[in-house]
Specification:
Layout (H helix, E strand, L loop, with lengths): L6 E5 L4 H12 L3 E6 L3 H12 L5 E5 L5 H15 L4 E4 L14 H29 L2 E6 L12 H21 L4 E8 L8 H5 L4 H9 L10 H12 L10 E4 L14
Parallel strand pairs: 1-2, 1-4, 2-3, 4-5, 5-6, 6-7
Helix pairs in contact: 1-8, 3-4, 4-5
Length: 261
């Protein structure tokens, strides 16, 4: 029970990596606030499943692009649970943005959700954690923050920005007892990338992913990433500030020209 007695706020906790994080943190003893972007029913469904195991959980809704909505949600969570010890920023979108052929609204949506949303969530939670003199913030970046992925330049740029945001916020938050770290998942099986895994139009992309994954597991399970988030949210990671933990099945290690046995 690594997180016993802690309150975890999981933004984007109604599906994918966020849902896996919410489940794993609950299993490790945390009380969990599950936040969905627009569906109260989806947030409540995950919270209800956690509560069915005897845990404490509650669903919330907030559009992370809207700072006022995020602040209002955070205040509600703090009032309902009494404190916020852990923030995990899992909200994000993933879609191609080819240069010269991407609508301005699509580009803005990518930046506003992936980057601005992370900024808004940390900004709302940081004062609470400062007052507590304790907090664990885990940002979900991506392997695409450290390597290019063709036709997904905007996504790569937002995830690279999250890595640097994580590092730089250390100078503002570490002295207040707050750890800020990030995880860089590689290809992870979630609803956000289901179309790449299932749509025949992306069969060449999928084949390239399979061929470029040294571990042989082209898509990690969301639970694999959730386990790392639990570690970073625990006191076992006390000395980690501004760290970026890459979890990509070896995808970014480089090309392999060796002779196979």
């Amino acid at each position: 029970m690594k997180l016993s007695g802690k309150v975890a706020l999981v933004i984007g906790g109604s599906q994918g990596i966020g849902e896996a994080v919410a489940r794993q943190m609950s299993a490790e003893g945390a009380e969990v606030a599950v936040v969905a972007s627009g569906s109260q029913a989806k947030a409540d469904a995950v919270a209800a499943q956690l509560e069915s195991t005897g845990a404490k959980a509650r669903g919330y809704v907030a559009d992370v692009r809207n700072a006022q909505e995020v602040e209002a949600m955070v205040k509600s969570v703090a009032a309902d649970f009494g404190r916020i010890d852990i923030l995990v920023n899992c909200a994000g979108v993933f879609f191609p943005t080819p240069i010269g052929n991407t609508a301005p609204d699509d580009f803005s949506r990518m930046v506003d959700i992936n980057l601005k949303g992370t900024w808004n969530s940390i900004g709302a939670v940081a004062p609470i954690m400062k007052e507590q003199r304790y907090g664990k913030i885990v940002n979900i970046a991506s392997v695409c923050g450290v390597m290019g992925f063709g036709s997904f330049a905007a996504y790569c740029a937002t995830k690279a920005a999250i890595i640097m945001l994580t590092k730089t916020l250390v100078f503002e938050l570490a002295s207040h007892g707050i750890n800020v770290n990030a995880i860089g998942p590689g290809n992870t099986a979630t609803p956000i990338n289901e179309y790449i895994r299932t749509d025949p139009a992306y069969k060449d992309v999928l084949a390239e992913i399979v061929a470029s994954t040294p571990s042989g597991k082209a898509y990690s399970d969301a639970e694999d990433i959730a386990q790392i988030a639990v570690f970073l949210a625990s006191d076992a990671a006390r000395a980690m500030h501004g760290s970026f933990v890459l979890a990509d099945e070896g995808y970014s290690a480089g090309a392999d020209f060796s002779t196979k046995d």
